[in-house]
Specification:
The protein is an all-alpha fold. The chain folds into 2 domains: 132 residues, no CATH class; 70 residues. Helix content is 77%, strand content 2%. Strands 1-2 form a two-stranded parallel ribbon. α2 packs parallel to α5, α3 packs across α4 and α8 crosses α9. The C terminus is likely disordered.
Amino acid sequence: MNRSYFVKALKSIFLLFKKKGFYILPPSLILYIAIFFYSPQILLHLEKKFQQNFVFFTVSEPLLSLLRFSFCIFLILVFPLIYFGLLSLFDEVLHLKKSFFLMFYFLGLIFFYLGVAFAYFITLPYGIKFLISFKTESLEASISLSHFVNFFSFFLIIFGLIFELPLFLALLSLLKILKPYKVAKYRKEIFFFCVVFAAIITPTPDAINMSLLAIPLYILFELGLFLGRFLEKVNIRAVEIQKEPQPE
């Protein structure tokens, strides 16, 4: 892929932000302030959900934790805008048809929020319950607010991005970097990598929690190969490369 395409795409994004930044930044700031204002109530809900009381050990910890927590929620809420900008960046290179651009866009949103929901409703509750189960009568749990915010925010964002794997593989196929049919020959190795990655990323070392990520991750991998093979067979580009006339 010619480097000039990426340079052109980056310039387009910069010019777009330069023109629209005045309209984007103020609403974003207002949204962040609103999230920050309601973040204590959200954390109170999480305390009840996980049946834990958060504590802090420094004077500045509550403020800094609320700022980080608010930023995490802000990123999740504005992800549609961020993803649209990134997809527009790649569209400068791929010149997708409008229907396929919309397909990539809405699939990206669905996968991201599925990942966030998966972490919130499945991985985090089970992981926190497992970790807290090690407390005893003489060993009570005191969860630092800062550590919980970092732990909670990391898993929400990382799971949302992990669930974008099918579109990432499909994009690599479109850029001719990855060959789906060749990669499919290494399914056993890929599954082993999924298990190892799940063991690293999940909050607990038990087999059940690893399976909760390893199996969906492998399914996402297979879905990515399917999308890659499908997109190779259809014409997704709005602009066709004109072939030079052959000399007679």
